[in-house]
Amino acid sequence: MRRLPSLPALRAFEAAGRHLSFRRAAAELLVTPSAISHQVQRLEQELGTALFVRKTRAIALTPAGERYLDGVRRAFDLLAEETRAVRAPERAVLRVSLLASFATHWLVPRLGRFAAAHPEIELRLEPSNALVDIGGGEADLAIRYGTGGWPEVEATLLLADRIAPVVSPALLDRGPPIAAPADLLRHTLLLSYAREPIEWPAWSAAHGFDLARARTLMLHDYNIVLEAALAGQGVAMGRHALIGEKLRGGALVEPLGGPPFAPPGLGYWLVTR
């Protein structure tokens, strides 16, 4: 059986020999200088030889200490190299800032496929309505909703969207009926907060609807807008990229019919800088 000194004693000696200071070695190893001195003394006793010459305010290696330090360093380097060789590769962390609604209704159902295709990546989703500073390290990339053209960022259209007013069947049953855009004025329009509102203004302009006369309810997040619409609290602007299942299942309906409206450039954008 090999008789080897303890690992804490070897680490204390290597750090002290490298720094030629018990104090700096202690700071590196997060212990006290007296603990370093004690470990070195135990090592010297075990080896039966002095490794350091202690002076009033400094230490120096003895010839035996210089030789032993070289060997300990080579042993530590070999141990570190073999550890790296057998250690499982670390997973890269990808921080994605995105709207909670996009995460809930589009991205999360697809996460299983992403994880299977990229097991080396740890995905961290960080919901936010703000246009984060990618260059400043707030996230690695962001997914935002709009028509692009944001200043001082690079954005690529990831998923184009189409929009149309949607309501719950219960609201239609309760009335008043919605047969034309003007009938929307008899209901509450559900809006999600945005620095530059796009959906309702764009749809209204395309359909001759006077949005200024509408009764509105401003909600913080599009997830809340959808929940309010499902509960029959008003009319939401349906984002087809997110609500396909709810339309197919009948939880939401488009009372005006016709094809959904596709404003130029509207959709989810990948912001990379």
From TrEMBL:
<dbReference type="Pfam" id="PF00126">
    <property type="entry name" value="HTH_1"/>
</dbReference>
<keyword id="KW-0238">DNA-binding</keyword>
<dbReference type="InterPro" id="IPR058163">
    <property type="entry name" value="LysR-type_TF_proteobact-type"/>
</dbReference>
<dbReference type="InterPro" id="IPR036390">
    <property type="entry name" value="WH_DNA-bd_sf"/>
</dbReference>
<keyword id="KW-0804">Transcription</keyword>
<dbReference type="GO" id="GO:0043565">
    <property type="term" value="F:sequence-specific DNA binding"/>
</dbReference>
<dbReference type="InterPro" id="IPR005119">
    <property type="entry name" value="LysR_subst-bd"/>
</dbReference>
<dbReference type="InterPro" id="IPR036388">
    <property type="entry name" value="WH-like_DNA-bd_sf"/>
</dbReference>
<keyword id="KW-0805">Transcription regulation</keyword>
<comment type="similarity">
    <text>Belongs to the LysR transcriptional regulatory family.</text>
</comment>
<protein>
    <submittedName>
        <fullName>LysR family transcriptional regulator</fullName>
    </submittedName>
</protein>
<dbReference type="InterPro" id="IPR000847">
    <property type="entry name" value="LysR_HTH_N"/>
</dbReference>
<dbReference type="Pfam" id="PF03466">
    <property type="entry name" value="LysR_substrate"/>
</dbReference>
<dbReference type="GO" id="GO:0006351">
    <property type="term" value="P:DNA-templated transcription"/>
</dbReference>
<feature type="domain" description="HTH lysR-type">
    <location>
        <begin position="5"/>
        <end position="62"/>
    </location>
</feature>
<dbReference type="GO" id="GO:0003700">
    <property type="term" value="F:DNA-binding transcription factor activity"/>
</dbReference>
